[in-house]
Design goal:
- The structure is a homodimer.
- With about 375 residues, chain A is of the alpha/beta class.
- Chain A has 2 domains: about 5-115 and about 205-230, Thiolase/Chalcone synthase (Peroxisomal Thiolase, Chain A, domain 1, 3-Layer(aba) Sandwich); about 115-200 and about 230-379, 3-Layer(aba) Sandwich (Peroxisomal Thiolase, Chain A, domain 1), CATH 3.40.47.10.
- Helix content of chain A is about 35%, strand content about 20%.
- Chain A has 14 helices and 12 strands.
- In chain A, the strands form 2 sheets. The first copy, chain A, has a 10-stranded mixed sheet with strand order 3-2-4-7-1-8-12-11-9-10, with helices on both faces. Chain A has a two-stranded antiparallel ribbon with strand order 5-6.
- In chain A, helix 3 (about 85-95) packs across helix 14 and helix 7 crosses helix 11.
- The longest helix of chain A is centred in the middle third of the chain and has 16 residues, at about 140-155.
- Chain A is globular, with a radius of gyration of 19 Å.
- The two termini of chain A are about 20 Å apart.
- Chains A and B meet through helix 2, strand 3, helix 3, strand 8 and helix 10 of A and helix 2, strand 3, helix 3, strand 8 and helix 10 of B.
- Strand 3 of chain A pairs antiparallel with strand 3 of chain B.
Amino acid sequence: MVLAYLVAAGMSKIGKREEGSRELINEAFAEIEPLIDPKEIEAVYVGVQSETYEHQIMYGTLAAEVLGLLPKEAYRVEACAAAGALAFHNAVMAVKSGLVDVALAVGVEKMSAKSTEEVTDALMAASDLVDQLSGVTIPAHYAMIARRYMYQYGATEEDMCKVAVKNHKHALDNPKAHFRKQITVEECLNSRPIATPLKLLDSAPISDGAAVAVVASERVARKYTDTPIKILASTVATDTLSVSQREDMTWPYAVWEAAQRAYRQAKVEPSHIQVAEVHDAFTINEILMYEALGFSKRGSGYMLIREGQTYIGGKIAVNPSGGLKARGHPIGATGLAQIYELYLQLTGRAGSRNTGAELGLAVNEGGVNSAVVVHILKV
Amino acid sequence: MVLAYLVAAGMSKIGKREEGSRELINEAFAEIEPLIDPKEIEAVYVGVQSETYEHQIMYGTLAAEVLGLLPKEAYRVEACAAAGALAFHNAVMAVKSGLVDVALAVGVEKMSAKSTEEVTDALMAASDLVDQLSGVTIPAHYAMIARRYMYQYGATEEDMCKVAVKNHKHALDNPKAHFRKQITVEECLNSRPIATPLKLLDSAPISDGAAVAVVASERVARKYTDTPIKILASTVATDTLSVSQREDMTWPYAVWEAAQRAYRQAKVEPSHIQVAEVHDAFTINEILMYEALGFSKRGSGYMLIREGQTYIGGKIAVNPSGGLKARGHPIGATGLAQIYELYLQLTGRAGSRNTGAELGLAVNEGGVNSAVVVHILKV
């Protein structure tokens, strides 16, 4: 099997941006342009969630056009918020297939021109139709899970807020983050309810942004960099569309499944992972992921954050970028924003938030953990 | 490089259906269930155009759920009407990557519950925003191309109608076709205008339907069939989102580019192809494709249909299934409906419309030929 390497990554500034998709893609790509001759890119895979935000579906062609890559292979891959990591997974598959030596993954979303109601509606299309008809929004799903988790294991609203506090702290050192502002547990507890027990400061924002990553075969990887990053694992797993069909709603089975497969592919253990970017769309989900990724035992993930073990410098640095909560969450770009952070961390380019890690993991999900993508990277 | 084989394919009846996506996927899969143990499928790629028709985006998870394939890898791939062939391309890439031995491609669309206006709007998202704001619908784009083609090369409205007459004739022998009704050139010429010079009977219908195909590695292909079909080529090419940016709007450059790459991959010439399924969303496009695929010289494609050479039994059988025009055009399913027809033709399962062909080609496109997928298959 052909080995695949991450050789370059770029990201736009994340936040409420004036620019549209085309400009955001260009901004992310500009960061890697000195490293990669666009002519050498043979295929482009674009992760983007919704056709409704910009009334556009041909994002593969659009990205190829913007980057001067026509008439090359280009199309869109999608599973709601997992789209960005799926674009990366597709690029890995393309390189491993031997069909191309260099593939580009692009993630992008331009959301802020729509109202919160329109975004909420677009995101509900990632859940089962029965749940949609019942009026259960995505935040409401996570709220039910949070409530059940608190009941089942004794976690508190403070524990969840501590995830947000950590991620805002990390983002202080990330010049491209949506929010660079320290918050306190009290501010989080007192922020307005979104879907009780989840509050505004438990929730990732609506963001605009783009991120890109270049995957190259072993044959050509060293042409681009002296420190190509090995893609040790790239896995995708799925779970029921409706949370109601799961045995235990506090257990994100697809995260566990994708992670188990990834650990086997990479031949590493959870305890070896030094840095992780995880999908904290709501604070409760970061805690669930600690457990399903094997960073803690089932039912005790909240102890990790209560003890501060997932700060940079702790047992394992989780979301050094600031995560979805503070770096921001432009849906289709998020998975690649995670890969971008690992790229910076593993090559020592993360500046004041450098962890010095050599082995990192990213987990990106769509729906309510109903499509999950895990990557393990090693420098 | 791992060789990839098409080992099974299935399709629902196409037309205005009462059923939703879930039932249509099940119906298509039921045709291959006797051949394939679902447990052996390792990944699922779903081609579907729009989130608006059923307010759903998680079609990968949905298909895996419907087919009992959770928690396996599953996601959506898309470039509007090219989605079906892209799902197949993705399955080919997955098998060639060595990551999986058996991959399932699913194409589905449930359109008929929406009004023609809603469908027209959803399809316009496949064009450039400037064209959308100008009010140029997809049919209007093809109408401009048709008008220019007639002016440039001397083709007539009769020539275009002859494509529709042929495809309706072929569909008479296809029990799963949307329309099984012979039409005449006069009926076509007298049908109501859609975007002049294109009329109702120049245009593919709004259809519901699903199709599936199984791609297997050389290692396991013969477990499923004694006559695995070699996938000789699988290519994707792109062209400007806006037709206005092309040098010659009558030349579908991405079709030519994808075909040229496919002929090189397959090591065959256009004259070797015995059967082809091409993307006749409007009759003019079948004529353009004759030229860009190299079945005729540039500017003389209309002579092929004028002389009746693309009927079954002619120089090359084009759209023996009835094509998009008469088999029907459930957007995300169309590319796999084409693969399904080649499967039937190359394995001699096409009944009274059998061509006896051993080498076939399919071309599926999205936008206005701005994303194009070509496959070449050989028994």
